[in-house]
Design goal:
The protein is an alpha/beta fold. The chain has twelve helices and 20 strands. The chain starts with a strand and ends with a strand. A hairpin with a 7-residue loop joins β19 and β20. Strands 9-7-5-2-10-1-11-15-19-20 form a ten-stranded mixed beta sheet, with helices on both faces. Helix content is about 30%, strand content about 20%. The model has no long low-confidence stretch (mean pLDDT about 95). Bound molecules: guanosine-5'-diphosphate (GDP), 6-O-phosphoryl inosine monophosphate (IMO) and magnesium ion (MG).
Length: about 425
């Protein structure tokens, strides 16, 4: 009768989708609680690759209930596209197994235009957003002028709300960003067809989760992005616009925080980041190239090459603190095979002082990583299904991570497939 949260501990793309898919059979309901279609979660099972942006990764399992909580922002057109693609791949999605909160804020066409126009106007200083309208949508939520999914059920109200929003947005679009204005009918025309498809899925998500718990069931909460992209605790301003930390699962789905008894942090065996912002262990050499090529480090959402670097224990330590992690999963360990030496950043050197936690955001770009080098291993790991089948050097690497975080490594992923997982 408890809940487990799965969170990324770095800057996203840690392999959360794969781990949620692997864990889903042990849970009755899987819930997304923040972010939007800036997320791209990849699941590979039975030789099929599924890409999920808004729909919880648990959906791939037949007869698993999935919920999208109030903390998410949803682009109706993109949602329908994702749903149609999954259905075409044979995934069952009906109002029976997918439930979407009426309180979710809609990503409107003007949010996307504003996101992209703002990024272009920032030039060199841009955040490197996904351009999906995530930031502007959360801005409207906080400003109390957002459009919520529940508004789709009352067309007159919806019309009034969009008309009011367009008044302000069109000033911004035309005066500040030199973009053409958006009309009411044009905007409605873009969202209404998708809205028709969405309405049957609208539900009271806290009640669905309560009912699951009442029957003695278990709930799994699937985080998006990563701890260091959190709007409050990440490397601000190079962050996303939601709370990505574990506590966001409570506010973002409408459940009590004490339900969240297990917090599983997902970390790659190295580090990656998409978009701009400080990245102390970033590698510009052949090691970075090895990680990008062997790890196929190209964004699921935008296709951008991901920046790659060594594993950063300062970042892991910070995530342990911010999320209250109870256990960790290390993914993509197989990608390190073939490197003669692997390094872990154990601390930062800040103006001659050794620090164990990240400094203030504006100082992070100037720190120097303190590395511990360890022998690498040549053997491929993708067939390993137990720790004993890993080379000694890989086991030592995992042991050192456990020591640095003070947490057990419960899962080790050695390939993108569901089966390519070691359970410790
Ligand atoms: P998420 O956003 O955290 O769900 O992660 P993504 O799906 O965006 O990125 C992780 C990528 O790595 C996906 O392409 C996965 O299929 C792949 N992947 C996950 N785990 C492993 C692993 O252990 N080894 C390898 N080689 N690939 C993996
Ligand atoms: P998943 O769930 C990696 C990054 C963007 C950009 C910053 C802000 O797949 O791990 P946004 O569009 O959110 O305003 O962009 O956040 N970003 C991600 N990076 N994985 C993600 O999601 C991301 N979602 C957003 O690249 O730097
Ligand atoms: Mg991703």
């Amino acid at each position: 009768m408890s809940g487990m949260v799965v969170v990324g501990v770095q800057w996203g793309d840690e392999g959360k989708g794969k781990i949620v898919d692997m864990l889903a059979p042990d849970f009755d309901v899987v819930v997304r609680f923040q972010g939007g279609n800036n997320a791209g979660h990849t699941v590979r099972a039975g030789g099929v690759k599924y890409v999920l942006s808004l729909i919880p990764s648990g959906i791939v399992h037949p007869n698993k209930k999935c919920c999208i909580g109030n903390g998410v922002v949803l682009d109706p057109e993109e949602f329908c596209r994702e749903m149609d693609t999954l259905i075409a791949q044979g995934v069952r999605i009906t109002p029976d197994n997918l439930h979407i909160s009426r309180k979710i804020h809609l990503i409107m066409p003007y949010h996307k235009t504003l996101d992209q126009a703002r990024e272009s106007s920032l030039g060199e200083d841009k955040i490197g957003t996904t351009g999906r309208g995530i930031g502007p949508c959360y801005e409207d939520k906080a400003a109390r002028i957002g459009i919520r999914l529940g508004d789709l059920e009352d067309r007159d109200l919806l019309r009034d709300k969009i008309r009011a929003a367009l008044k302000e947005k069109n000033v911004l679009l035309t005066q500040l960003y030199r973009q053409p204005p958006l009309g009411l009918e044009e905007t409605l025309g873009k969202i209404l067809p998708a809205a028709e498809q969405l309405c049957p899925f609208l539900a009271d998500v806290p009640e669905i989760i309560r009912q699951c718990w009442q029957k003695g069931g278990q709930a799994l909460f699937e985080g998006a992005q990563g701890t260091h992209l959190d709007i409050d605790h990440g490397t601000y301003p190079f962050v996303t616009s939601s709370n990505t930390v574990a506590s966001g699962a409570a506010t973002g789905s409408g459940i009590a925080p004490w339900r969240l008894t297990k917090i599983l942090g997902i970390s790659k065996a190295y580090s990656t980041r998409v978009g701009a912002g400080p990245f102390p262990t970033e590698l510009m050499d052949e090691n970075g190239q090895h990680l990008r090529e062997q790890g196929a480090e190209f964004g699921t959402v935008t296709g951008r090459p991901r920046r790659c670097g060594w594993l950063d224990a300062v970042i892991l330590r910070n995530s342990t603190r911010l999320n209250g992690l109870t256990e960790i999963a290390i993914t993509k360990l197989d990608v390190l095979s073939g490197l003669p030496e692997v390094k872990i950043c154990t601390a930062y050197n800040q103006r001659g002082e050794k620090i164990l936690y990240p400094p203030e955001e504006h100082d992070l770009a100037a720190v120097e990583p303190v590395y511990v080098g360890m022998p690498g291993w040549a053997e491929p790991l993708s067939e390993a299904r137990s720790l004993g089948e890993l080379p000694g050097a890989a086991r030592d690497y995992l042991k050192y991570i456990e020591e640095l975080c003070g947490l057990p490594v419960k899962f080790v992923s050695v390939g993108p497939d569901r089966e390519q997982t070691i359970i410790n």
